Amino acid sequence: MKNFVKNLKIFKWKIKSKIAVFCYGNPAKKLKIVGITGTSGKTTTATLLYKVATALGYKVGLIGTVENIIAGEVRETNLTTPDSVTLTKLFSEMVKRGCTYVFMEVSSHSVEQKRIAGIPFVGGVFVNLSQDHLDYHKDMENYFQAKKKFFKMLSKKSFALSNADDEHGLRMLKGIKAKKYLYGFNEKCDFFGEIKKIDFNGLDLSFNDISVKSKLLGKFNAYNLLAVWSACSLLDFDMKKVNKILETIEPPRGRFEHFTSPGGILAIVDYAHKPDALEKIFAAIKEVINGKGKLISVFGCGGDRDSLKRPIMGKTGAMNSDIAIFTSDNPRSEDPDKIIEEMKTSLSSEDLKKVKTIPNRHEAILESIKLAQAGDIILVAGKGHESYQIIKGVKSHFDDMEELKKNLK
Questions:
Q1: Do 125 and 231 touch, CB atoms closer than 8 A?
Q2: Residue 15: what pLDDT?
Q3: Measured between alpha carbons, how far is 191 from 228 in angstroms, rounded to an integer?
Q4: How many other CB atoms are found less than 10 A from the CB of residue 286?
Q5: Packing angle between helix 84-96 and helix 2-24, nearest 10 degrees?
Q6: Domain 257-407: assigned CATH number
Q7: Of 298, 300, 292, the residue nearest 265 (C-alpha)
């Protein structure tokens, strides 16, 4: 019965895609579209590519988790990758507005649901793969294969750029038609990076022996930058200009967004809402603070989503924090207390001593502020750019950065 329902849904998605093309033609053929897929880093990579291409003077489109943009005009979005009808409408408007390039996040759901069927991508970028969406894909192999289907779509004229340092990077390129390229920091490959310096001022990097500087923080952003730089090279952009643009570019909203309070407390907001992303944000903080001050984290796990990652995230947060406050993310229809209890199931007795449980996110952030002193760091993770909470089906305004700025004096 489950397979019948799934096949019926796939049939419906295929029909939607054909209807979209019938109504609007295929405007995607007039655009140079690059898809970015993976678990963590899609939004940053796509957004940086959009910003670089725009700074180079092109009219550009962006389709992603935070927002859709058409030649500078921002549109709200509810899905990382919209349905095929919405995509076709967006592409049609991008063509009318004179866009040349489009950078879009490609989610595993969108591949499985045929939302991207018929899009003639000029290139694809794979950033990494770690546990997420197993409520939908059931296991990591199915999740990987969903990403792989995107690369199998690419034509012989397209490029396929993959992270050589990720355990799935080489496998992602096997058996595909597109021209294959690798980027990474651990071994020599087509696009090889080195981290020369990493601190709170940003990153000093070397890409293929060319110096590249950035305001972005953390080793994970070094990977995002190398992916961007490599894609720009494959698109034949003026790389001297690209290097200058990368020096001034800002990260996307809610990605390692930070400020220092008048009282000397560093507050960081990040979208990290899966195990790998949370681990990376902790590593990035430790890279730039050199062990100074307490690290107080505030985070939770979303309801009606992959429950298998809850104990992993709980353990990651407790191990890497001096104080970890477990709270609500978007509990949706689930009981927040139940989610938090599941986050605690893999904790050692020592880690449990560092954990506070405050289901109300507003109160949890206030508690982190109360506990922090000059020189300490507060990390509020999980929601990033989101400005809402979904509790028992009700969507209410809530913004982590707004909460911190309003209450940190």
A1: yes
A2: 55
A3: 11
A4: 14
A5: 20
A6: 3.90.190.20
A7: 292
Q: How confident is the model at residue 132 (pLDDT cuts 50, 70, 90)?
A: low
pLDDT digits (tens, 9 = 90+) for 299-351: 999 999 889 999 999 999 999 999 999 999 999 999 999 999 999 999 999 99
Long-range contacts of 391-396, Cβ-Cβ distance < 8 Å, separation of 24 or more: 391/328, 391/330, 391/331, 391/332, 391/336, 392/331, 392/332, 392/333, 393/332, 393/333
- The vertex-85 CA angle with 82 and 87, nearest 5°, equals 45
| DSSP summary character for residue 260 | E
Look-up: residue for tokens 């963590």?
40
Sign of the alpha-carbon dihedral angle for 33, 44, 199, 321: negative
Q: List phi, psi (to 5°) of 274.
A: -140, 160
**How far is Cα of residue 37 from the mean position of the Cα atoms in its chain?**
9
Q: Which of 193, 201, 189, 177 is nearest to 226 (CA)?
A: 193
Closest Cα to residue 385, out of 158, 58, 65, 137?
A: 65
Domain boundaries, the chain: 2-248, 257-407
Residue 36 predicted with pLDDT over 70: yes
Q: What tokens does 284 get?
A: 């990035």
* Helix H or strand E segment including 65: none
Q: How far apart are CA 259 and CA 126, in angstroms?
A: 31
| Interatomic CA distance for residues 330 and 391, integer angstroms | 6
pLDDT in tens, 13-27: 555 555 555 445 689
Assigned token pair, 40: 């963590």
Query: Phi/psi class of residue 368: alpha, beta or left (left: φ > 0; alpha: ψ in -120 to 50)?
Result: alpha
Residue 123 β-bridge partners: 34, 159
- What confidence category does residue 5 fall into, taking pLDDT thresholds of 50, 70 and 90? very low
- Cβ atoms of 157 and 193 within 8 Å: the answer is no
Q: Which pLDDT score, from 0 to 100, does residue 80 have?
A: 80
Give the relative orientation of helices 42-55 and 219-234 as an angle to the nearest 10 degrees.
Answer: 50
Residue with tokens 């709980």, as numbered in its chain:
314
| CATH 3.40.1190.10 correct for 2-248 | yes
Q: How many alpha carbons fall within 13 Å on the CB side of residue 399?
A: 11
